[in-house]
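hey so u asked for the seq, here:
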Amino acid sequence: MHSTEAESGLASGAVPDAEGVRPPRPGLILSICCLSLLLIGMDVTIVNVAIPAIQTSFGSSFQAIQWVIDGYTLVIASLLLLTGSMSDRYGRKRAFLMGLSIFTGASLLCSMAGDVHMLIACRLLQGVGASMLNPVALSIVAATFPEAKARARAIGIWGAVFGVALGLGPIVGGLLTQTLGWRAIFLINLPVGIAALVLTAKFVPESKASRGRAFDPLGQMLMVSALGSLTYAVIEGPHLGWTSFLVRGLLLLCVASVAGLIAYERRHAEPLLDVRFFRSVPFSAATLIAVMVFACFAAILFLNSLYIQQERGYSALQAGLCTLPLALAASLCGPLSGRLVGRYGTRPSLILTGVAMIVSALLLADLAHDSPIARLLLAYAVFGTALGMVNAAIATVAVAGMPKSQTGVAAAIASTSRQVGASLGVACVGTVVHADAHHMGDLAQSTHPLWWVMGAFGWVIIVLAWATNTRWAQEGSRRVAALALARGDG
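ran it, structure tokens below
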């Protein structure tokens, strides 16, 4: 889920440093940075497979288990823009070492958690560390490979590691959960994290951007308030009631935070979130598509573990193996989408994304407790096609027409929207399927509305694929670029 946002490391114009000197041992530096991606990529899918075991171990509610997943992605979504820009200003190696230290230490604390609330708190801390890894590591990669072709190859390798992490995560997580217990899924991060720390300290040179963005504390606070209150309301709404004082207050806080963020950032000289970008139809479409696709992706991973293990009685390892078709399809279709975008533009990839989501939704629309597993695996493979097809298109659409100095920031905002989508996807599972710890027997039947929502998202993406490639949309992007240039951003 995280490395598909590889371009987020280019936030704040995170391009090779002004001197353009290629550091020694670039291949080793790339390998070290890819270790962080392996850590983060595996972490999400490993934890999803272990969810039933964690719930049984603590006897926790469905809402609490949602927070084990969502707390992590929510923190990343909230801090991704901040950590990218701060590393450019204060030093990428320094930020990378700090992120590795926090993530590795938090992993140890997760393995020692005595209750679900402690686990959630440690997952939040993990998210802080993870937010410093992906964007900062890719900034290091960009600085290490100043030549455009070499940098493109390096980022291609970086993206391939995500496919490996996505495929290994559920299998390794299932095997560890089944043999050693769920705590082992966090302990496995320790040797990898320590190795990355030692190698980074020894071989990775320090680098900074020639000019980093200033810290925007109020904008950061408003972003955390908006995302946190919305996620909390969606998770707790089915349990507390949508008319409860707390849920209504949280939704009101979310609206007020968004309004305040827009009003404040429009006047800020160096905004954390440049709201001008949303005047561009392609950029807004890329953001919306990212939210929809990754909300469905996160929901599928979450529900797969519950359905396969609790409803079908399969082991954690078997649940992990069930996601393998999704991972393989995503890995195979990613490079294909890149070639399609380069030759024909974004429309074919986005249309294929929408069609794949519709087909996958139809295959799952009548899911039952005795549905053939082969059909489930086919649905996952088809959705993996959508996931693989969408990433190159999102990255391209998001930066289309933007001034060169703003493409990194635009890509980072689009990447943040992926994390927002992932958080909302898990949060909405409880709302859409009306599931909690007392109604898991009806899980297959109650997922049906979710698949119809996913099919509707597919149709929306097809419409947006057409809209983003119209002359009207492209002219709108040029107007946004001209506005940025007029304000001295280009």
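Confidence is low (pLDDT under 50) at residues 3-21, 435-440. The chain has three domains: 1-205, 217-269, 277-490.
lmk if thats what u needed
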